[in-house]
Design brief:
single chain, about 425 residues, mainly beta, 5 domains
């Protein structure tokens, strides 16, 4: 194994210059660096005659740790740097780099990003990058004013400062990046296995022009970035606060979902359920509720207390003030809060007023049938009017009761009453039996 020492003859051993380069020291400045061979060209400026003002081109730089296998610990010297040049048996080495003296006779301070104390260790570059290991156990990694990391022993704390961040592991990834338009996007993936069979994806910030948050859960494809393409669960939050949640089979995003809920910033809620989203529930911002099932039945409760149900052929409504109405395609029953009741169809209307009046309106014949009898009682006049004949048929007697103190009249069967024509009243042509 050769260490690059210069072989010397007997003549060289007694040559003054060769003797001076056997073991000596000088101050030198690096003028060129060969990183591949770990050597540099140095110009010496001090020392004895044998090593003063010489330019060795194979000057090896000294490392803190170096081994024949190639592992090493040290730093790459830079052109213009000053160091101590050692000459050992004709081989030049440089190490122990130093800073030149300033105007005040002291070495120039570096561009440290932190205050240094006795016992601190520091590694810095011309660009200002710096690694500082402080005597109190704190470690500071500094790149730029906007990019640094501090490891603080107190509470085992880590403080990071950056403008963009990427973290990847077998179990997922995290990224946070700003855009030129000052928008930012934070994105994370969480895998259940390294093969990304299923994952949870989250996005925060500028997800789209109207979304600031999105979470999706579902199957993923190994090697295909940007989360799941067939989510089974999706939740989004808009810039206004509107929150949408969807749950459906693993289908491409945007496919009809089995369940979808929308919560508005005003407190309104909309729920779509069913395989084809045919069940709908809406809660208005003022408290109204509406339920629709397969477009066949609709139930609505207004914020004022009105209750309305509508089916394919029938409906019912109960209003806050007390009105009730039942209806189908051919008939309606209504009850007013004041007590009025109306039953009607396309041809007939029966009305009962709160005052007790009963009205039956029909375009055709009206029949009143009682198996045990029919009583018409009134403390006032009873009027029976007709455009045509009025017939009263019975298998028994027709009795006209004149009341207390008056005469009762009995009409025997058969008896016919003719319309009054205005002529003087004449006795009936039939037999009239007077009971009193």
């Amino acid at each position: 194994m050769s260490y690059g020492l210069i072989d010397k003859s007997i003549v060289e051993c007694i040559h003054p210059t060769r003797i001076q380069q056997s073991a000596n020291i000088a101050l030198g400045r690096i003028i060129d660096v060969d990183i591949k061979t770990r050597t540099c060209t140095v110009a010496t400026v001090t020392g004895s005659t044998g090593i003063f003002d010489v330019y060795p081109t194979q000057c090896q730089w000294l490392c803190q740790d170096a081994n024949p296998e190639g592992d090493e610990s040290g730093s790459i010297p830079r052109r213009g740097s000053w160091g101590i040049v050692y000459v050992i048996d004709g081989q030049f080495f440089i190490g122990g780099y130093t800073k030149p003296l300033g105007d005040k006779g002291t070495t120039l301070r570096g561009n440290e990003s932190t205050t240094l104390n006795e016992g601190d260790k520091v590694i810095s570059t011309l660009a200002g990058n710096q690694l500082t290991i402080k005597i109190n156990g704190r470690i500071e990694l500094y790149s730029t004013p906007g990019l640094s990391r501090n490891l603080i022993p107190t509470n085992n704390k880590i403080v990071d400062l950056c403008s963009a961040y990427d973290f990847k592991s077998a179990g997922g990834l995290i990224s946070w990046k700003p855009s030129k338009d000052l928008t930012t996007l934070w994105r994370a993936e969480y895998h259940n296995t390294t093969n990304r069979l299923f994952l949870v994806e989250e996005k925060k910030g500028f997800v789209s022009s109207d979304l600031m948050f999105k979470r999706a859960v579902g199957p993923a494809v190994m090697g295909v970035p940007q989360g799941t393409k067939t989510p089974v669960y999706v939740q989004t939050i808009g810039l206004s606060g509107e929150t949408i949640t969807e749950i459906h089979p693993p289908l491409p995003e945007g496919s009809p979902s089995g369940f979808k809920s929308t919560i508005g910033p005003d407190g309104s809620i909309e729920i779509l359920a069913g395989a084809a989203q045919t069940v709908k529930v809406n809660v208005g911002a003022t408290g109204s509720v509406e339920v629709n099932v397969n477009d066949l039945g609709n139930l609505m409760l207004s914020d004022t207390g009105d209750f309305i149900f509508a089916g394919p052929v029938a409906s019912a409504s109960v209003l806050k003030k007390g009105d009730i109405e039942l209806a189908n395609a051919v008939a309606t029953l209504s009850m007013a809060a004041a007590g009025d009741i109306t039953v009607s169809n396309a041809a007939v209307t029966i009305s009962i007023s709160a005052a007790g009046e009963v009205t039956i309106s029909a375009p055709n014949k009206v029949t009143i049938e009682g198996k045990a009898g029919v009583d018409i009682t009134s403390i006032g006049p009873v009027n029976i009017e007709g455009v045509g004949p009025i017939s009263i048929k019975t298998k028994g007697q027709i009795m006209l009761d004149g009341g207390t103190g008056a005469s009762d009249f009995v009409l025997t069967n058969p008896t016919t009453l003719s319309p009054f024509t205005g002529a003087p009243l004449v006795p009936f042509s039939t037999t009239v039996m007077v009971s009193k």
